[in-house]
Amino acid sequence: xxxxxxxxxxxxxxxxxxxxxxxxAAFSEASGLESETTVIEYGTGTGGPVRKLPGxxxxxxxxxxxxxxxxxxxxxxxxxxxxGNLQRRNGSIxxxxxxxxxxxxWNFVDGWPCKWEASVLNAKNSEIVIEMLEIAHEGxxxx
Length: 143
Known about the structure:
It is built from 1 helix and 9 strands. The strands form 2 sheets. Strands 1, 2, 5, 6, 7, 8 and 9 form a 7-stranded antiparallel beta sheet that branches. A hairpin with an 8-residue loop joins strand 3 and strand 4. The two termini are 35 Å apart.
């Protein structure tokens, strides 16, 4: 009898970010793939156990990091919010296997950049300057 096929976990460095309307999106880090539902405690008044019911579901902001280049698409998207011209976009964080095939896809809807940040500029080191983009959104699904 042959041994069972191994089902190894995927590696966290094989991923791609897709944002509608943005051509290049190569990132070194993506985080914020989270959802949380508040717990509402409800007492029956009879001295029995407290019931726990689901409340509102919230989604964490997605945080993307990459080395700064001359590409200004993310900066321009953020500036559209600053100037009052909100442009919501859908997007995906796509997990890849070792052969770079899509295996999991987290889709976010109606996202917009709520924060942009550049890393500290320091003449005493030779680190790459990183830009961080934080995206607020209204839903996350695993496809």
